[in-house]
Amino acid sequence: MKWVRDVDENAPEGVQKILTGNKADEEQKRQVGREQGQHLAEEYGMDFYEASACTSLNIKESFTRLTELVLQAHRKELEGLRTRANDELALAELEEDEGKPEGRENSSKTCWC
Description:
Protein name: small monomeric GTPase
EC number: 3.6.5.2
GO molecular function: G protein activity; GTP binding
Structural class: mainly alpha
CATH architecture of the domain at 2-74: 3-Layer(aba) Sandwich
Distance between the termini: 66 Å
Radius of gyration: 27 Å
Family: Belongs to the small GTPase superfamily. Rab family.
Helix content: 40-55%
Number of helices: 3
InterPro entries: P-loop_NTPase, Small_GTPase, Small_GTPase_Rab
Strand order of the largest sheet: 1-2
Order of helices and strands: HEHEH
CATH superfamily of the domain at 2-74: P-loop containing nucleotide triphosphate hydrolases
CATH topology of the domain at 2-74: Rossmann fold
C-alpha cells in the first residue's frame, strides 16, 4: 500500500500501474499471498500478475500488459499530435499555393518567388 501511495504522490498524473507479485516459484519465500495480492490489485484498480524472475513466469506478459496500458492511455494524445501535424502540413501547402500566380501565362516559370 505504501508503494501505491508513493507512486500516486510522485509519478505524473494518470501513470499506468500493474501489481506484480514476485517469487511465484518459491511459495515459502513469499511475503504476500496470491489472494492478498489479487485483492489489493482489485482495490486499487490494477491488473495483477504473479511472476518469477527465476523461471520467467509472467515476466513478458506483465511488461506487455503495462505497455498496452501506456499506449491506450496516450493514444488520444498521439492522435492529437498526428492531427496537428497534418493540419500544419495542409496549412503550409495552402500558403505555398497562395504565392503562386494563377493562369497558363506564367506556367513556364520554375520559381514563384
